[in-house]
């Protein structure tokens, strides 16, 4: 059964580590599958064309090492490498593909739940000199929630990775369109973007914002939105029709921000870079606020 955090304004639904999604991509510790504000949903789903939705991303799923999981390069084919928050994945080719379903040996998970928060611990095996302990707290706020991370390097090698939350957003289940407005606290410079995929030209860029001229039928994607410059880790999404907004603020500066979306969903992604020597611990957090606009 999912764990529910709830107050007068907000309901947060969390699948426990070995419930529902068991894929090799997203972190199993605290899979936030749905959030509602004043009984209106603010979350969506990665795909709508799959009969079994437990295989895809939902709500607020985070991921470590989307491009390069721990130890992948030095692992021989047939051996196992780490995916933080999941466990050990079996290497079956020379290149890593985050969309592939790898064979998984799950990590060990421990859950401590309360009415207004849930703590989930993830202890990895020590393999090829690499190991970690991840502790995540998801705590209810008056009009939102916070995700707090604590990562300890229990192995012999430095952990070099990144983490982001793949925010699958759709306010009141509205399709993407002219009533959506996404803002960032920095100047957008498209010539510095890493990649631009906007085949229908329905996504419009402003000085610090994205908007729509219609509902895109094809996927869109923009990478490296800050041009590799360190900026405040924040975005704000507004639905002008329902007059509901949502904001994410990271406790860290970020120099890597991506934006992905489709007909039914939009996903701004704030990446947090991690370089953690053996025996050391690092902490960071993501705070989400949902509010009514005028």
Written account of the structure:
The chain is built from no helices and 24 strands. The chain is mainly β. It starts with a strand and ends with a strand. The model has no long low-confidence stretch (mean pLDDT 95). The chain has a single domain (3-292), classed as Beta-galactosidase, Chain A, domain 5. Helix content is 0%, strand content 48%. The strands form five sheets. It has a ten-stranded antiparallel beta sheet with strand order 9-10-11-12-24-20-19-14-17-16, with no helix packed on it. The protein has a four-stranded antiparallel beta sheet with strand order 1-2-3-4, with no helix packed on it. Strands 15-18-21-22 form a four-stranded antiparallel beta sheet, with no helix packed on it. It has strands at 3-6, 10-15, 31-37, 40-41, 60-64, 80-83, 87-90, 104-106, 108-113, 117-123, 132-141, 144-153, 159-167, 180-183, 195-197, 203-205, 209-212, 220-223, 231-239, 244-254, 257-261, 266-270, 272-276, 281-292.
């Amino acid at each position: 059964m999912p764990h529910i955090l709830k107050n007068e304004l907000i309901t947060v639904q969390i699948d426990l580590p070995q419930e529902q999604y068991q894929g090799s991509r997203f972190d199993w510790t605290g899979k936030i599958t749905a959030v509602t504000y004043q009984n209106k949903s603010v979350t969506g789903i990665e795909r709508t064309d799959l009969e079994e939705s437990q295989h895809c991303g939902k709500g607020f799923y985070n991921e470590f090492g989307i491009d390069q999981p721990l130890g992948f390069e030095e692992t021989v084919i047939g051996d196992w490498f780490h995916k933080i928050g999941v466990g050990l994945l079996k290497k079956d080719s020379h290149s890593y593909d985050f969309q592939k379903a790898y064979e998984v040996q799950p990590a060990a998970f421990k859950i401590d739940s309360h009415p207004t928060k849930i703590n989930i611990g993830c202890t990895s095996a020590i393999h090829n000199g690499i190991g970690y302990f991840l502790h995540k707290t998801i705590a209810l706020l008056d009009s939102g929630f916070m995700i707090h991370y604590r990562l300890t390097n229990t192995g012999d090698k430095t952990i070099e990775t990144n983490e982001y939350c793949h925010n699958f957003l759709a306010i009141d289940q509205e399709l993407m369109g002219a009533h959506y407005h996404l803002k960032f606290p920095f100047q957008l410079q498209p010539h510095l973007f890493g990649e631009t995929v906007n085949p229908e030209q329905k996504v419009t860029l402003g000085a610090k914002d994205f908007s729509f001229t219609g509902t895109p039928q094809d996927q869109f994607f923009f990478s490296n939105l800050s041009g590799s410059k360190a900026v405040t880790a924040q975005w704000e999404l507004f639905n002008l029709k329902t007059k509901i907004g949502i904001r994410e603020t990271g406790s860290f500066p970020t120099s890597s921000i991506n934006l992905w979306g489709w007909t039914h969903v939009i996903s701004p992604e704030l990446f947090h870079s991690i370089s953690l020597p053996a025996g050391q611990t690092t902490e960071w957090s993501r705070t989400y606020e949902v509010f009514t606009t005028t």
